[in-house]
């Protein structure tokens, strides 16, 4: 498999990502960045994430939706029944060499060890009301390869940073 698996997510200071199947903040610039990075790509998401989208399916992308319900189908989407099935379908549909996992919490956890790249938007705030969290990014496993910080403004409710991580290669005996 030459295809890179990338995770794209916005997280709070304590790895918070959401509450009640929704986001905890509004960052207009991050939404534009998400669209730019994922357009013309394969995106993989869970059923709840798909159902929470304001536009379904996300345009200019191959939407792969993971569900346990083999009778379920969404117009304009490729249905997958587990992460291995999603990866196999992503390999078939991808012609760019990079696919994006876009959520939600349980999907991120299942793909975390398989990911090559993390595109993190770190929101500089903690959110006590969160009910969904991203796995901890450990320095022994991930290397930050780029970072840019932005201040809150009329389009963005919080200070935030874009951090791109690459998985460290492990030597095996």
SSE diagram, text form:
Blueprint: E1 4-11, E2 16-18, H1 28-38, E3 42-46, H2 47-52, E4 62-66, E5 77-80, H3 83-93, E6 98-101, H4 105-111, E7 117-123, E8 132-133, E9 142-150, E10 160-167
Parallel strand pairs: 1-6, 1-7, 3-4, 3-6, 4-5
Antiparallel strand pairs: 2-8, 7-10, 9-10
Overview of this structure, please?
This protein is of the alpha/beta class. The chain has a single domain (4-167), classed as Dihydrofolate Reductase, subunit A (3-Layer(aba) Sandwich). Helices cover 20% and strands 32% of the residues. The protein is built from 4 helices and 10 strands; from the N terminus they run ββαβαββαβαββββ. An 8-stranded mixed beta sheet has the order 5-4-3-6-1-7-10-9, with helices on both faces. A two-stranded antiparallel sheet has the order 2-8. Strand 3, helix 2 (47-52) and strand 4 (62-66) form a beta-alpha-beta unit. The longest helix has 11 residues, at 28-38. The mean pLDDT is 95.
